[in-house]
């Protein structure tokens, strides 16, 4: 039996579901029951009736699934699948920050630890950040964390002045404006699409800004076009399936690497073999302390209710 068949067999025997993010390796996306963005994945995690959730993504995503499903086993193929954005917001430092502004409502982007979510009023994702912020009165003082680039983008779009935590994603800050403009000169007929974790100067060039799922929905409107895509390169797998005739070009990064494209090293620690082994051994498992879990559930549920 090959590894794909073995995973399918184990999944059936154990009543498990595999949820995968768009940044996972193509072979992982192909075996998953559901592939999506952070919002879609948390919605699927909230709905599933499986006994085991295998989260092919990064740690904060598996934690969110566990918070929504305390009675289920949540597995992550490799526990080192972290996130630079989540790491940029240590809970102790974040507590000091929010304590200094007690009158502010706290919105956190889902890319943060369960401890940080537990100090939050509402969680958001890149797919619903504008909607979540707009759900609050215009004059409400808000702290937005941890992504300063997404925060700046939301401030600009909504005309707000949210106080921003100084965090960012290494992958989305790796794009080179200079190389992007050079690439555009070679492909002046292309549309530029970007994830809002990218820096402001990259976002300024974009014809569309949105979450990974939003970017796929956008390209579907122009199935024969050419696109320069500023996000993690794993997204191109499902995107190309959605628009087989479109030409998809990964946005170039500052560093000269072999593929000239941007890969999230955290997302890419998961492999098909590790996915198989974690399902077989039902380990490594992601757990969240009861007190943290109960506090973090409130802002996650608020987000799901508003979405
Ligand atoms: P999405 O919400 O678009 O899936 O983004 C998740 C992420 O980690 C982007 O870096
Ligand atoms: Fe975190 Fe960036 Fe990787 Fe997304 S792409 S998981 S934000 S490090």
Would you kindly provide a brief summary of this structure?
With 307 residues, the chain is α/β, with parallel strands linked by helices.
CATH superfamily label of the largest domain: NadA-like
Write the CATH architecture name of the largest domain. 3-Layer(aba) Sandwich
Biggest sheet architecture? 4 strands, parallel
Give the amount of beta strand, in percent.
5-15%
By DSSP, the count of extended strands is 12
Radius of gyration over C-alpha positions, nearest whole angstrom? 19 Å
H/E element string?
HEHEHEHEHHEHEHEHEHEHEHEHEHH
Mean pLDDT across all amino acids:
96
Provide the number of structural domains. Answer: 3
Strand order of the largest sheet: 2-1-3-4
Give an overview of the whole structure.
The structure is a single chain. This protein is α/β, with parallel strands linked by helices. The chain has 3 domains: 3-81 and 267-287, NadA-like (Rossmann fold); 85-168 and 296-306, NadA-like (Rossmann fold, 3-Layer(aba) Sandwich), CATH 3.40.50; 177-250, NadA-like (Rossmann fold). The protein contains 15 helices and 12 strands. It has helices spanning 3-13, 26-31, 38-47, 59-68, 84-87, 91-99, 114-117, 129-134, 148-158, 177-186, 200-203, 212-220, 235-242, 272-281, 290-306; strands spanning 16-21, 34-36, 52-56, 73-75, 105-109, 122-124, 142-145, 163-164, 191-194, 208-209, 226-230, 247-250. The strands form 3 sheets. A 4-stranded parallel β-sheet has the order 2-1-3-4, with helices on both faces. A 4-stranded parallel β-sheet has the order 6-5-7-8. Bound molecules: 1,3-dihydroxyacetonephosphate and iron/sulfur cluster. Residues 37-38, 111, 125-127, 169, 195, 197, 211-212 line the site of 1,3-dihydroxyacetonephosphate.
